[in-house]
Amino acid sequence: MGSFATRGEHAPLAVRQVAPTRSHANKRYLVLGGAGGAGKAAAGLLVAEGASVVIGDVRGQALEEAIASLGHDSKVLSGVVVDLSDASSIAAAIKEAEARLGAIDGLVNCAAIVRHVDPLETPWSDWERIFSINVYGAFEAARLVAKAMIAKGIKGAIVNVASEAGKKGHTQSLAYSASKAAMINFTRVLSEVLAPQDINVNCVCPGGMATDMLREVAVAYGDLVKQAPDEVFKQLVSSQLRRHIDPVEVARTISFLLSDDAIIIRGQAINADGGDTPY
């Protein structure tokens, strides 16, 4: 069903400036997919809030550039190359992160890929590639970090970054949407599994965030509707905010879910899409 507006459009709402607290003082985190977007923003915010962070990403040069741009001391921020489609690479990265940090208090699972194609033309290889990273790799990372935390008696948190696509689905990215729905589901189950060890598990579902991935969406949609990608990108905004979501706004949600303040929020898929998803 379409919609009919009885109110005029309002001006875009400003990104609010929030001073970092010391809510993660002396905490140690691994942020996967941390070379850009919400992952990079989360890593920077967590360090500003007192944590030590290891960023993991498959893109070596982007990883170096992200660390340099965040500008923190190597004692509190470093990077490791990891391929989430390779179980041995995930295990090695977690082992390296634990060695650098001493222990891991929490994980941010932010790495993902997306392919845009007509759903009836989605090749088998796309499903395999997308699920190998967005689901199998993400779960393997969560599983191994949880085991490392349990071995050291650490009570912490895991935050998976899904997407509003995991709830609503998008026709031109069917496999991606399904992978994020799977992440939402395994978050729920893993939360219950890890509750006895007091490891909290939640996921965040961002919407139209100003990232390279959204620009890829704009290119794909632009090809379909014969519009310039920049024009399409301008339209991929929150209906309530009237603008793109800033990665730091999603990072704040991630930070909160990692903290002890979120102890009663468990196994949830928190919408961080500016009000576009109703459940």
Structural topology:
Blueprint: E1 28-32, H1 37-48, E2 52-57, H2 60-70, E3 77-81, H3 87-101, E4 106-109, H4 124-151, E5 157-161, H5 165-168, H6 174-194, E6 200-206, H7 212-225, H8 229-235, H9 247-258, E7 269-272
Parallel strand pairs: 1-2, 1-4, 2-3, 4-5, 5-6, 6-7
Helix pairs in contact: 1-9, 3-4, 4-6, 7-8
Describe the structure.
- With 279 residues, the protein is α/β, with parallel strands linked by helices.
- It has 2 domains: 28-207 and 246-271, NAD(P)-binding Rossmann-like Domain (Rossmann fold), CATH 3.40.50; 210-244, no CATH class.
- 44% of the residues lie in helices and 13% in strands.
- 43% of the residues are buried.
How much helicity do the residues have?
A: 40-55%
CATH topology call of the largest domain: Rossmann fold
**Terminal-residue CA separation:** 17 Å
Strand neighbour order, sheet with most strands: 3-2-1-4-5-6-7
Based on DSSP secondary structure assignment, what is the total number of beta strands?
Answer: 7
**Order of secondary-structure elements:** EHEHEHEHEHHEHHHE
Structural class: alpha/beta
**Text of the CATH class of the largest domain:** Alpha Beta
Main sheet makeup: 7 strands, parallel
Strand content: 5-15%
- What integer value in Å does the Rg equal? 18 Å
Overall pLDDT score: 92
Categorize the overall geometry.
Answer: globular
| DSSP helical segment count | 9
How many domains is the backbone divided into?
2
CATH superfamily of the largest domain: NAD(P)-binding Rossmann-like Domain
Low-confidence stretches: none
- If classified by CATH, what would the architecture of the largest domain be? 3-Layer(aba) Sandwich
